[in-house]
Amino acid sequence: MSTTSPPDASPPRKSPIWWSNGVLFVFIHVAAVMGVVGRPLQETCRATLLLAFILWQAACFGITIGYHRLHSHNAFRASTTTKLVLALLGASAFQGSIRWWTLRHRLHHRYTDDPVYDPYAATRGLLWSHMGWIFFKPTYEKMSLVEKDDLDRDSIVCWQHRNYILLALTTGFALPTFMGWLWGDAAGAFIWGGLVVRVAVWHCTFCVNSLAHWDGLQPYSDENTSRTNFIIALITCGEGNHNFHTFPHDFRSGPSLLDWDPSKWIILLLNYCGLANGLRRVRKEDLADALVHMANREERSTAKILNSEGVENHLPTLTLNDIYQLFDAEPRLCLLLIGDYVIDAKTYLGEHPGGAAVLRRYAVRKRREATWAFMGGLNNHTRMARVRLRDLAIGRLGIEGK
Ligand SMILES: [Zn+2]
Ligand SMILES: [Zn+2]
Q1: What is the edge-to-edge ordering of all strands in the sheet holding 317-318?
Q2: Could you tell me the residue ranges of all domains in the chain?
Q3: 312-356 pLDDT tens trace
Q4: Residue by residue, what is the 3-state secondary structure of 295-329?
Q5: What is the distance in A from the centroid of ligand 2 to the CA of 392?
Q6: Which ligand sits nearest to residue 106's alpha carbon?
């Protein structure tokens, strides 16, 4: 579980420029741009572009499944073969060794948003959390508090760490160039499968540290800046469901089938094939507790708006039986329970910016116990959206016999 320290009142100390990191970072970007200018997309053969796409996704999975979920959070156990493949894919992403990456990521979770101790704190601005931190050599004062024994005991982690530069150059540049050579396009494969893919993988991972701490929903926790953002999830193999930060030991980055998370699906497949086991999940009661806590926060502000308009004074009290009778009369009702307010969203389905399906998903099902159906989906709704609820409220849920 992430631990949030209160942001330090004093500004972060100036760190010296990290020349080796910065120069390599800028050099690869410049080389990629020059490469693309010299070999534009339309002049590159399809096999090379397909190779680049596959290598991009493979490197991303090396980070999300291997570096992040397997090693940083021990969210599952993997067979030696699986670990080895993930270590090679991760090395191809050019983001440091498993050991290097994991220790810093554990710091990020331990001191999320702390401007001094979180290596890529979102509280220091979008640019800093995205890539600004790459240019300054930090001291990692709290690193001694981070668990590292499991990494030091893992022979594949140690082997990858010792041979990291060779493995990164081989998997990140030599391999794509060789594969392109097989169909007569070594130069194109070096540019697109080597340079461009390295830049793409970097920025996809960095988006998790920056944009996924900046814009999106907070269905599980608002104790730190992590957010759940579908668009970021699309380009980060699922990591954009980042508000699941609250449950880092879970092998999923979203518990729902509808959460876009290919990394989770691959781990499930590996588990099915016997290549991974011990998949860890957050306890159901903890998940429900987090959702209800966040939903209650919403409920309070929704109730405030309804109260401020004096709406609650003239709303009838509806029991579950009343609700069932409403369903009998009108089966296509879309009733939402928000706190103890009964909302009829049927006339709003076509207008809902998030789409009708989402509302239907959280609606009370006919003849099923009306439990808390409305969870975190409305967290980031504007005040105006909540005011809109005022017009849709048809009653307050009352207890039978009262
Ligand atoms: Zn984060
Ligand atoms: Zn994490």
Answers
A1: 317-318, 393-397, 341-344, 335-338
A2: 19-282, 293-397
A3: 567 888 887 787 788 778 777 788 777 677 888 887 777 665 567
A4: HHHHHHHHHHHHHHCCHHHHCCEECHHHHHHHHHH
A5: 39
A6: 2
